[in-house]
């Protein structure tokens, strides 16, 4: 199950209390203060792990608490620090503060870490409070509480190319043809219900990643269909392949609808490099294909690539174009 959003509660450990103690040695009837310091509370640390691909674990476990520091002991012995709690998340996870909505960290690299909640400082033992006028203090410092907060986790896939199109535009067929990804494919809308990520082998030694999200419908940026939930997964892509199927009655209108949804969703998507493609060319005759190739989109000088993932027509040109744009 692919889960890309979760709310959790994290709490760092409390610092251990300082100790009130005195030296108790033979022939020393009035020993000085000997209370040790409390240990520091454990931190809550997030770590990006490339072996993970979903936030599914956080659906069942929503509370994460680090260990408290141990109190100080006699004979100036300090308490042990509390153990940190390490929370592994997929690469591409964004950590937000639920209350403010502020982005705290973007874990966009494998191994990158973020301390979401710091453990409390341990209290000082009474040995720290001795003065010339008070050589036997009978008080110590309490440990400080650890930080706690409600966290939002959002996963954004990291890919080179993002596929954008209406339901049934052939995105799933394309990604299953050019990579080892195996999304569900059927001849009805919204077959794809979650993002798919595939690695495309280009030529002999090169490769790039491609992301397929559920089909976009008009009004997706307002929450219609499944688009709003998954559009964030293509915000990290370097380029977008905008796909319209060959049997469309109006290519210009369909491209404009898709572009409008991207522009209204975020400035990030609006500013990305876009390649325009007509899919399912196997449904057209040779003359129809040549006619489509001669089309130009209003306000766009980009070339339209006509291709079919089923027959293989135009696939070399498509992959060459994607690779060239990625290299640029």
UniProtKB/TrEMBL annotation:
InterPro entries: G_OBG, GTP-bd, GTP-bd_Obg/CgtA, GTP1-OBG_CS, GTP1_OBG_dom, GTP1_OBG_dom_sf, OBG_GTPase, P-loop_NTPase. The keyword ATP-binding does not apply. Coiled coil: none annotated. Its cofactor is Mg(2+). Residues 126-137 have a biased composition (Polar residues). Residues 121-143 are annotated as: Disordered. Keywords: Cytoplasm, GTP-binding, Hydrolase, Magnesium, Metal-binding, Nucleotide-binding. Mg(2+) binds at residues 172, 192. This is GTPase Obg. It comes from Melioribacter roseus (strain DSM 23840 / JCM 17771 / VKM B-2668 / P3M-2). The lineage of its organism: Bacteria, Pseudomonadati, Ignavibacteriota, Ignavibacteria, Ignavibacteriales.
């Amino acid at each position: 199950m692919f889960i890309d959003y979760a709310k959790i509660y994290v709490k760092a450990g409390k610092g251990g209390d300082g100790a009130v103690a005195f030296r108790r040695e033979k022939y020393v009837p009035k020993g000085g203060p000997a209370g040790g310091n409390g240990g520091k509370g454990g931190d809550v640390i997030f770590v990006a792990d490339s072996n993970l691909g979903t936030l599914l674990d956080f659906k069942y476990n929503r509370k994460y608490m680090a260990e408290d520091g141990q109190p100080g002991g006699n004979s100036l012995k300090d308490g042990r620090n509390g153990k940190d709690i390490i929370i592994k998340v997929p690469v591409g996870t964004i950590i937000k503060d639920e209350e403010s909505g502020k982005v705290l960290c973007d874990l966009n690299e494998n191994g990158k870490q973020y301390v979401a909640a710091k453990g409390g400082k341990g209290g000082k033992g009474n040995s720290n409070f001795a003065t010339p006028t008070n050589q036997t203090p009978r008080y110590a410092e309490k440990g400080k509480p650890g930080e706690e907060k409600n966290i939002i986790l959002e996963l954004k896939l990291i890919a080179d190319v993002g596929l954008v199109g209406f339901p049934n535009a052939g995105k799933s067929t394309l990604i299953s043809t050019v990579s080892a990804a195996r999304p569900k494919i059927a001849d009805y809308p919204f077959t794809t219900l979650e993002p798919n990520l595939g690695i495309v082998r280009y030529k002999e030694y090169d490769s790039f990643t491609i992301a397929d999200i559920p089909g976009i419908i008009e009004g997706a940026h307002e929450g219609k269909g499944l688009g709003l939930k998954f559009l964030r997964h293509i915000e990290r892509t370097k380029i977008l392949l905008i796909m319209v199927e060959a049997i469309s009655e109006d290519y210009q209108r369909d491209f404009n609808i898709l572009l409008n949804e991207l522009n209204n969703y975020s400035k990030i998507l609006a500013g990305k490099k876009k390649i325009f493609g007509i899919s399912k060319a196997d449904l057209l005759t040779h003359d129809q294909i040549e006619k489509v190739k001669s089309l130009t989109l209003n306000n766009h000088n980009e070339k339209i690539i006509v291709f079919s993932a089923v027959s293989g027509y135009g696939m070399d040109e498509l992959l060459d174009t994607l690779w060239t744009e990625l290299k640029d």
